[in-house]
Amino acid sequence: MRYDAETVGPLGPDRKAVPVTAWGRTAAEFVAGAPGLADLPTPVVTLDDGAVTDNVAVMAGWARAAGVDLAPHGKTTMAPALWRAQLDAGAWGLTVATPWQLAVALTEGVPRVLAAYSVLDPGVLALVSRPRTARVLVWADGVDVVAAMAPHVAGAVEPVDVLVDLGAPGGRTGARSLEAAVAVGRAVVTTPGLRLAGVAGYEGALAHDASPESLDRIRTYLTQLAAVHTALRDLYDPATELVVTAGGSAYFDLVAEALAPLHDPDGRRGQATRVVVRAGAYLAHDDGFYRGISPFARVPGSRNGGGGLRAALHGWVRIISRPEPGLALADGGKRDLPFDEGLPEVQAIRQGGTAATEPLAGAEVTALADQHTFLRLSGDAERLAVGDVVRLGLSHPCTTFDKWSLLPVLDDAHAPQPVVVDVVRTVFG
Question: Which residues form the D-serine dehydratase-like domain (predicted)?
Answer without folding.
Answer: 312-411
